[in-house]
């Protein structure tokens, strides 16, 4: 036999499942990763006591200024991210909520992901060396470039590696530096013929760049809109699509002559 509940009791009984569902949603792990600005590294200098760029078979030049590659830091593939974490990340400019598959598309285990990222970094370094030597019209048979950057994976440092090699070997071609003594940061993949490709987490990378003293940020042109989101004050965006274009833009900035692309 059913008894009739008073209105307050009925509302309370109906609300119980909703409260239970909300409580479950708050604590159940969700398929997202939380990202934040990561480390930056000057490819013209050392990383953990080891030169990032080493050249044999050709003399290198002393450089001033910095070329800083940028990264993001994300929660691990096996980390639990709750609804509360996601909501908090959405309302913070120094955090980003990203689909886990977009951050870790390469495997199910930490070891698989680390192996994939290491392979991507090696491929990026090889392409960066080829692109830089091609730009300089130097044969790979005559010059060997070694790139080392500990604890960083993925392909997004390719552009900065290429620029670093060019600056080490030739600079601006007239005794000056590509950087013009500035701290220049950036991101972007590169292929062996110098095409620059898009990457992820650009809005967070601009924050990392400015935090570490950069005043210029090289960004793949297709990601200008993303780079403008929460852009730190004092950081100038320079869009690039090729290695040649990136070098031209830096030389224009250094010499104060010619147009400098802007987003």
TrEMBL record:
<protein>
    <recommendedName>
        <fullName>Lon proteolytic domain-containing protein</fullName>
    </recommendedName>
</protein>
<dbReference type="InterPro" id="IPR008269">
    <property type="entry name" value="Lon_proteolytic"/>
</dbReference>
<dbReference type="Pfam" id="PF05362">
    <property type="entry name" value="Lon_C"/>
</dbReference>
<dbReference type="InterPro" id="IPR020568">
    <property type="entry name" value="Ribosomal_Su5_D2-typ_SF"/>
</dbReference>
<feature type="domain" description="Lon proteolytic">
    <location>
        <begin position="153"/>
        <end position="244"/>
    </location>
</feature>
<dbReference type="InterPro" id="IPR014721">
    <property type="entry name" value="Ribsml_uS5_D2-typ_fold_subgr"/>
</dbReference>
């Amino acid at each position: 036999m059913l008894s009739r509940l008073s209105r307050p009791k009925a509302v309370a009984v109906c609300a119980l499942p909703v409260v239970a569902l909300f409580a479950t949603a708050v604590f159940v792990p969700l398929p997202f990763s939380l990202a934040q600005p990561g480390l930056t590294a000057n490819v013209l200098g050392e990383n953990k006591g080891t030169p990032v760029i080493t050249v044999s078979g050709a003399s290198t030049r002393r450089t001033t200024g910095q070329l800083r590659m940028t990264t993001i830091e994300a929660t691990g593939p096996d980390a639990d991210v709750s609804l509360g974490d996601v909501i908090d990340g959405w309302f913070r400019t120094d955090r980003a909520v990203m689909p886990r598959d977009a951050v870790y598309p390469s495997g199910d285990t930490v070891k698989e992901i680390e192996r994939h990222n290491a392979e991507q970094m090696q491929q990026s370094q090889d392409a960066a060396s080829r692109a830089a030597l091609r730009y300089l019209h130097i044969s790979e048979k005559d010059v060997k470039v070694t790139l080392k950057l500990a604890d960083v994976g993925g392909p997004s440092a390719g552009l900065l590696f290429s620029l670093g090699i060019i600056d080490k070997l030739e600079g601006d071609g007239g005794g000056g530096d590509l950087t013009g003594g500035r701290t220049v940061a950036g991101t972007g993949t590169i292929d062996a013929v110098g095409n620059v490709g898009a990457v992820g987490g650009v809005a967070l990378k601009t924050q990392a760049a400015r935090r570490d003293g950069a005043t210029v940020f090289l960004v793949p042109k297709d990601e200008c809109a993303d780079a403008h989101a929460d852009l730190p004050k004092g950081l100038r965006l320079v869009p690039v699509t090729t290695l040649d274009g990136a070098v031209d833009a830096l030389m224009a900035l250094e010499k104060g002559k010619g147009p400098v692309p802007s987003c």
